[in-house]
Amino acid sequence: MLSRMTTLVVLAVLMLNVLLVFVCSVHAEEKQNKPATAENAKDGAEMILITGGSFLMGTAPAEIDEQFRDTGLPEDWKKHALDEQPRHRRTVEPFYIYKYEVTNEQYKAFMDATDHRPPPHWKGKDYPADKGNHPVVEVSWDDADAYCRWAGTRLPTEAQWEYAARGAEPAEGEPSRVFPWGNSWDRTLSNNASLHAGKELQNAADWKEWYESDQKSKFPLTSRVGSFPKSVSPFGVQDMAGNAWEWCAEVQAPYPEQNAEEADDKKLRARRGGSWANVALHIRSVDRQGAPQDDLNIYTGFRCVKLP
After folding, report:
1. Distance separating alpha carbons of residues 73 and 77, to the nearest angstrom
2. Strand 291-292's sheet: what is its strand order?
3. Residue 119 has what DSSP assignment?
């Protein structure tokens, strides 16, 4: 009887040890996979450290063909993807990027500290009710740049933004990510026009019908930052697909050199990520849609970056 009890105790101890080893290994793996973060002292924004690396920026014609088949977009819209070519190799140094887009609440703190102008759709210096944690929109490139300088940061380059959204270069033979979450389109994973419409908007007529419908009085249809956790980028960055377009630092100029002197419009600043009012075409992480530097619209906000 005693021998049997001893055996049971030994087995119990062994099972407990196995369980402890498993729990510790899981904890270690989670800790290893968790991105390094920091807090920006000026505005309290959580920042994620993006390890430097090399990646293929932009798209190749064959990739665009596949993306259009996946999303069901019309062939004649491929002309909007020409500025994503040629695909080319870029290298970025390590940098911090805001985990979320700059919010109305953060922007108001900046305004209060600097007496900067508010976005036109605000009521004076007050942001729309219950939207403190939504991305600030209807800010120009200069407004965004002023915020970044106040916060001790700057706007991301297009290369930094795309690298943070798509992740490092995939294994040989694997395609680069089309969206932060992967290669297949799913309108439920981000704040976009097709999500609001409840169906795929795959032509201009359908989009216009949705845009001019009764919900127009509720514009902008932004969402609280971090509302779509399944769309997180490989580095752990949120909302890089939809919600609000994000200003980038440069004049939008042709690949691969991105020489501002070669730009058709030298006041056209690059934007990335698409917004609540856009379809799959613009939610792709390679999509580029510049806007005039002084443009104010209810689709565009920004996030900041900072060197370690």
Report:
1. 7
2. 291-292, 268-272, 245-251, 300-301
3. P
CATH of 35-306, one of 3.90.1580.10, 3.40.50.2030, 2.40.50.140, 3.40.50.300: 3.90.1580.10
Rounded distance between C-alpha atoms, residue 138 and residue 142, angstroms? 12
pLDDT (tens digit per residue) in 134-187 = 999 999 999 999 999 999 999 999 999 999 999 988 777 677 899 999 999 999
Helix locations, 201-304, DSSP H? 204-211, 280-283
Question: CA neighbours within 13 Å on the CB side: how many for 202?
Answer: 12
Render pLDDT for 238-281 as a digit per residue (tens, 0 to 9).
Answer: 999 999 999 999 999 999 999 998 888 888 999 999 999 999 99
Q: Dihedral, CA atoms, 283, 289, 292, 298, nearest 10 degrees?
A: -20
Locate 52 and state its tokens.
């430097």
The burial class, CB within 10 Å (0-12 / 13-18 / 19+), for 47 is buried
- How long is the chain? 308
